[in-house]
Amino acid sequence: FPCDVIRNFSIIAHIDHGKSTLADRLLELTGTIQKKTSGNNQQVLDKLKVERERGITGLEYSFVGLYFWLMKCATQTVKAQTASMVHTVDGKSHLLNLIDTPGHVDFAWEVSRSLAACQGALLLVDATQGVQAQSISVFHVAKERGLEIIPVLNKIDLPASQPERIAAQMQSTFGIDPSNILQISAKTGKGVEAVLQAIIERIPPPKGVTDKPLKAFLFDSLYDRYRGVISLINVQDGILRKGDKITSCHTRKRYEVTEVGIMHPEEVHTGTLQPGQVGFIACNMKESSEAHIGDTLHRTGEPVDSMPGFQPTKAMVYAGIFPVDSNDFIKLEESIKRLTLTDRSVTIQRESSTALGQGCRLGFLGTLHMDVFRQRLEDEYDANIIITAPTVPYKVIYRDRTVMISNPTEFPDVTDPASKVKEVQEPIVKASIIHTYPTEHLGEMMDLCFSHRAEDLDHRYLDSGTALSSRAILTCTLPLSEIVTDFFDQLKGRSSGFASFDYEDAGYRASNLAKMVFLLNGKPVDALALIVHRSAQQNIGRIWVKKLHKVIPRQLFEVPIQAAVGKKIIARENLSALRADVTAGLYGGHYERKMKHLENQKEGKRRMKKFGTVELPQEAFFDILGSK
Ligand code: GDP
Ligand code: MG
């Protein structure tokens, strides 16, 4: 395949707007996969249970385009997140490479790197739903990368579709000429042929040169337990052949290419990859950490300039993970290590806590990433785990240095002048919420934002005019920590599905933060420490103290439960003493059930932790940290 018949593209869409369905139709129309005859409409690219479960929950703001990333993590073998197909028009064969892209902000980095291998993108919008938050954020990334955008309205078979109105919306939001918008039904296949045509006509071919030195861009990698690391690459110049000796620009390590091929959508060994082509290689890389996303590969001895502008992934949400039974630490750590073999974006450190014993502190790209990892860990490691409250990375600035802190126990006491802290900064994001207008919703959304310390609030309409059901976008900056804790849940609760949400990194901002610790009978419990904004400390202190009061088992004496910031106690509850004749109802009902279960499982072996004179079973933390 010479360069001029190759097209590299991706589909960008909000969840449920039909990306997987369209991908299936494209693969069928090009004969890459067989058309399904039965009623089984399970999508080829969606092979994961967890994604399908998430996909149908309708939590549109949070689970977009997840399959790309999940496929990589869970399948452990090369599966088609990238699929190549051949399409022939007027006797001329074209090689179309569909490169999958996650739509969620947690994976902004993946979006950016997979789009770097494309020259164009299909912007797919549901004609019954209209433009949503993720459609906009991913559109901007694609636009910045200079990709040719083909706008496509999907689901026009539905009676509720409003193609003209949504087309006008796309015009006002993206500056797209409505006459360029294709109208299709990915379900029935109507108009999909025209999509293939548009891909060939509108998207420019990659500009590779065959007789230049080899230059290949590594945009993703997978881990196969038999073959080691499989890298997905886009050959920019030169020809890559099986047997080639290659070098990584980033690590200077050398490899020999043992397998070369394309995903069709299963692996097809081709032995070579031409300029412009997208495919996989195996090259005796043993560990995922050797495959640096965004790395440039060249033939050993023929150096090339590496591709600029790629930063490594950075973790934005951290949490400690501990086994409920501390004897299980080794087993837990093994499970975590096994999972991170296939997902390098998770960072791991050992952590030990006086309250919870030995555990691991993990860093994630975002809350969705954390949720998914937790779910996979729970599936893989069949015992209860305790996860501490998530924390974002803070910058603590001293006169002569800046320290990044992502574990509350390491946070200095800023209320004490002796700590010499000049300033504390926290990560902030630019958030956008798209909602229907006008309704009482706008006021509610604004309240929600302000109660989460929003600044720079702005609001504008997506539709021209202010018809009753038109849509509007609200933007503001929010501290990332607010989103990590409960902004998502509250938005979901209050909006009951009419709003969609997205956010992007907006740097750091100085903030009035402090560490809150909780004391049992005067002794601090490290695993419960939190970093809070001073304006909310009273509230948060009270809520947590109440929560602790509810779940901590009564002792033989009275136990004060206190929240403190610095030396100041800001909330307190007393846990009254246990009377000798009380044998039942010591704990909340939920707790009791859990104890029974655990007792059966572990023959009543209960581990007590001592905090001064207070004894707590490890399981109590499960309840404290697990309840919202
Ligand atoms: P994704 O989340 O973007 O991958 O969306 P899916 O491809 O999973 O589609 C979401 C839902 O919309 C599924 O139930 C599809 O069957 C349905 N769907 C997709 N395209 C169409 C279409 O053109 N018409 C209709 N009526 N339904 C569609
Ligand atoms: Mg899908």
CA radius of gyration is 27 Å
Strand order of the largest sheet: 11-10-16-7-8-15-12-13
Averaging pLDDT over every residue, what do you get?
Answer: 81
Proportion of helical residues? 25-40%
| N- and C-termini, Cα separation | 56 Å
User: Tally of extended strands?
Assistant: 33
- Beta content comes to 25-35%
**What does the main sheet amount to?**
8 strands, antiparallel
* Contiguous runs where pLDDT drops below 50 for at least 5 residues: 37-80, 581-586, 601-605
Structural class: alpha+beta
Instruction: Tell me which ligands are bound.
Output: guanosine-5'-diphosphate, magnesium ion
Overall shape: globular
What's the multimeric state?
A: single chain
Count of DSSP helices?
Answer: 14
Explain this structure:
The protein is of the alpha+beta class. Helices cover 25% and strands 32% of the residues. Strands 11-10-16-7-8-15-12-13 form an eight-stranded antiparallel β-sheet. A six-stranded mixed β-sheet has the order 2-3-1-4-5-6, sandwiched between helices. Helix 10 packs antiparallel against helix 11 (480-495). The termini are far apart. The structure holds guanosine-5'-diphosphate (GDP) and magnesium ion. Keywords: GTP-binding, Hydrolase, Membrane, Mitochondrion, Mitochondrion inner membrane, Nucleotide-binding, Protein biosynthesis.
